[in-house]
Design brief:
Helix content is 24%, strand content 28%. It has 4 helices and 12 strands; from the N terminus they run H-E-E-E-E-H-E-E-H-E-E-E-E-E-E-H. By secondary structure, it is of the alpha+beta class. The radius of gyration is 24 Å and the shape is globular.
Length: 243
């Protein structure tokens, strides 16, 4: 025997609507990502993350001639000075890494891969870092003229959260820095991987940077909207019961 009344059905539907609204609103808050770049970049002062209040933050500049920043690894490539020892004229570091901004990155070090089309994917390790970074980016420093640079990022669920590109390589592949560009992403829900690639060429990059900034609750936004919606539903339910 079905003892449901129209009022009970409407009441239940309102509650289900409220639950769906709350879930969708929460998911939107957690997964909304902001892409950044390509932006000119000559030193760490040019980083769009420079003024962010982080719980922790790393910039890997490869100047120790190895990857020393924790909780991150690359699937391709290696340190330019290790792969090509004794050829500093070919290294394409961020300009300021050799102590002076002079239009050349030859005095510093960088990360190099000979397979630009595959690119380099940087994977962050939550077990090491404690949290996946909320901010991540990297600086493209060299590749072939005329080909598009591509930056992508994914969250912990494997969802693509950033997909941006730029064409800015010049004809000079010997350490010039006017072409260097920063690519990055901000995602409050966390960033699991980023990839930088460029088809039909080698690729060089520097200043891998990533950090975690805890996102405080926003009572005036999500919580406030949910409270108003819930009170509205309660008023409508009481009205239905009274009729």
């Amino acid at each position: 025997m079905d003892n449901k009344t129209p009022e009970n059905s409407k009441e239940r539907q309102m509650i289900e609507n409220l639950s769906t609204f709350a879930v969708l609103l929460s998911l939107n808050t957690l997964t909304q990502a902001t892409t950044i770049g390509p932006l000119p970049y000559l030193s760490s002062l040019d980083s769009p993350f420079a003024t962010t209040d982080f719980d922790w933050f790393y910039i890997e500049d490869f100047e120790e001639h190895q990857l020393v920043s924790p909780g991150v690894n690359a699937d391709h490539g290696g340190i330019a000075s290790v792969l090509f020892p004794g050829e500093p004229v070919g290294y394409d570091s961020v300009d300021a890494d050799d102590g002076i901004i002079d239009g050349s990155g030859a005095g510093g070090d960088s990360w190099y891969s000979g397979v630009g089309a595959t690119g380099v994917t940087w994977t962050f390790e939550e077990s090491v870092l404690g949290h996946l970074p909320t901010h991540a980016g990297i600086v493209w420093t060299d590749g072939a003229w005329g080909f598009t640079v591509h930056f992508e990022a994914w969250d912990a669920g494997g969802n693509l959260i950033a997909d941006i590109s730029g064409v800015h390589a010049d004809h000079d592949n010997l350490s010039a820095t006017a072409e260097d560009r920063f690519y990055g992403v901000i995602n409050p829900g966390g960033i699991a991987m980023i990839r930088l690639s460029q088809p039909n060429t080698m690729i060089e990059m520097d200043h891998l940077q990533y950090g975690y900034a805890a996102v405080p609750a926003a009572p005036g936004a999500v919580t406030g909207m949910m409270s108003m919606f819930f009170m509205s539903m309660r008023r409508r339910i009481r009205t239905l019961k009274a009729t």
